[in-house]
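Dear colleagues,

As part of the handover before I leave the project, I'm documenting each prediction I ran so the next person doesn't have to rerun anything. This entry is a single chain, and its sequence is reproduced below.
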Amino acid sequence: MNKICPVVGVDVAKEFCYYCGLAPTGKVYLDSFKAFNDEKGILLALKKIEEMEKAFNRKPVIVLESTGHYSNRLVHFFSKKEFEVYLVNPLQSHSIKNSTIRKVKTDKMDAEELARLFFIKDLHRFKLSNEAIENLKILTRTASHLSEQRVAIVNQLVAAVEQVMPGYTKIFKNIASVTSLALLSHYSCPENFLNASKEDLVTLIKSTSRNSKEYAEKKYLLILKAAKEAMNIGVPLEAYYETIKIYTGNLLHINEQISRIDQKIKQLAIIIPELELLSSIPGIGPKLAPIILSEIGDISRFKNAKQLVAYCGIDPSVRQSGKFCATQNKFTKRGSPYIRKALYIASTVNIRKDKQGNLVNPVIHKYYQAKVETKSRKQALGAVMNKLVRIIFSCLKNNSSFKLITPEEQVAKFRSNFEVAA
């Protein structure tokens, strides 16, 4: 990293930012100033930064703290203006902000300290991912948020239905199934079920479940029985009926939106070849591959697999002081929670058997079993996640699909390549 250049530190807030410019020597050249995050304010900041560029005959680098969507627009703006942008982890910036003895903190000082961080820390330049990857990241995160909302609404719907018609949740264990939601959207109380014609209910169940008429009639009888029991043991409050309608409508809407996002992701998958590479890894497939790839971004940012492991936040923390050295350390969890969740799911799949009773990944399963002998199951699964990240790194870095190979075969292949090179 060439540090003989001017630097602009940016302390980001919701409505405005403070900018401070340092000369290549580290002295303050551009005193901290405030600019709002609208078009006028950002263009004012750009004008002053360009004046600084003329003064030193060199484009200043921009250093700002990662503050979620507040910093995202500025990162894109300055990157498109061809400035070198360094997005700092708050853990790094807080370390220098707390380096002074006096407890003084202002936005003006923070902007200066962020700029100074460029000279004393080995920062990594931020690179914009290609547009397809950026779109994929937004879509997968939105889908994740909608899925979380869906789980919360399902729980609330179950609670309301169990008050009104307790037997219903035994008939449909998955209350959010297509058939169940179709019934609840038409009949939100026991009286509605009892007053409905058999033909209408059977037809609705048959069409939505795509099962036989015999199946639909069995479900109809169970519903009728549950509705009659609910007349005696249910809570007959109009508010519950209305709540069921609202939650059912919300679930139908969220299901529609998630389906819409899935279609968009499938369209993007056609133009992102890396997704096919990740999908070839057992346990990942077309559902988890977009999440993992969008969170990793450009694999060239990582020199080795160890860096990618740390980025994902699944590297073990270290606790050591004097003669004490902790042996049970947790993950640092300083990376993306979205990718960690996806890796956890993929790892649990890798150590299981498929529907035919075959191991999904015999090599990973053997590795997991060996780890379980000396570690807890939770720690062993963490080791599997770590190994899975290394496999992901290898596939993306070498631009190759996954190939199942035992450790012995891998060692033999390495020795063979080494002998050829020698």
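Residues 13 and 77 are 16 Å apart (CA to CA). The chain has three domains: 7-120, 134-267, 274-421.

All the best with the project,
I.
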